[in-house]
TrEMBL record:
Keyword presence, Isomerase: yes
CDD domains, per the entry: GTB_UDP-GlcNAc_2-Epimerase
Keyword field: Isomerase
Biological source species: Leifsonia poae
Stretches assigned to the UDP-N-acetylglucosamine 2-epimerase domain: 25-347
UniProt-recorded name of the protein: UDP-N-acetyl glucosamine 2-epimerase
Similarity-based family: Belongs to the UDP-N-acetylglucosamine 2-epimerase family.
PANTHER family: UDP-N-ACETYLGLUCOSAMINE 2-EPIMERASE
Coiled coil: none
Amino acid sequence: MRVLSVVGARPQFVKLAPIAAAMRDRAEHIVVHTGQHYDEIMSDVFFRDLGIPAPDVNLAVGSGKHGEQTGAMLAGLEPVFEKYRPDWVLVYGDTNSTLAAAVAAVKLHLPLAHLEAGLRSFNRRMPEEHNRVLTDHAADLLLAPTQVAMDHLATEGLAQRSVLVGDVMTDVLYQVRDQVERSGLRPAGMEPGQYYVATIHRPDNTDDPARLAAIVEALGGLDRPVHLLAHPRLVAAAEAGGVDLQQGSIVLTTPLAYPDLIAAVSSSAGVVTDSGGLQKEAFLLRVPCTTVRPETEWVETVELGWNELVGSDLPRLRAAVQRPRPAATEATPYGDGHAAARVVDVLSERMTRS
Ligand code: UD1
């Protein structure tokens, strides 16, 4: 079986790590990097730290407006798919790289599998929501991380093509958490239990200077140091909108490599974020999370009490972050840490059948 994975942005490298490991000895695995994320700290460190083989192809597409970026990927992927003619094109999550690869694959009649299928925010302002809905409806095989995702797919008439495999981010998180514990990796300059970790990068939060200023002010007003791991989009938007990121409690930092991020979150008093992955990582590490968005795809984290949403009412952020520690839970809505092996099983099973 020949599987061609297309990745391009930071969360996709994290998801690729356990898949690449599970493919070893079981499939010929071609990795194509679109180049959507290209900085050392947004891309290269993930391949290095997570032991992912170097991409076979890098399209080096870089940044751009949605149409420009997605279009460049689509044009770049077509000859690559024609060259390799894989048994499966495997796409991940909800970025512009996901959508471009999905469209390129279906136009060439190549079987398409979508990992992390069925997530919905029901917020059509999010580019990620367009990407996931369009990709799910184009794909031949929908690999869902949770029962909630399976239910969304069934509602949209896609049950026949859907399989619940669990969440591959749980696989990689558990492995790296154990490595971090064994190695005793400690985040530099962070006093255990005495700081928060924050990330903000979604367009709805960064691109309106008034909204961004209100978020930064709320973070700066928290009662402990807030290590703000600044995504390039945040830095660029703050500069363009004249928002000073270095205020009050904020300690401005570059994004962290994955093991450093896990070490930092594990020892923190809480996480404040608009990232999808980090909400779940906080839950799996049993660190309280506050999400700066009106809704979340990872509803289980909220239902279990480990995540609280703060949308427009930013003055409420302080109370949300300082809320009492949630009740302990043994729930495992994101699987058992063996999702990647199940993905390879399903791909080979469905290939034989077709
Ligand atoms: C993308 C994904 C989002 C994912 C996020 C994780 C889309 C539509 N969005 O958002 O789903 O949660 O990645 O990080 O695909 N930049 C750099 N260096 C880089 C990458 C980006 O400087 O390595 C800057 C560019 O100036 C760019 C901006 O960051 O304009 C945003 O990058 P972009 O690729 O548009 O999307 P993200 O916001 O990173």
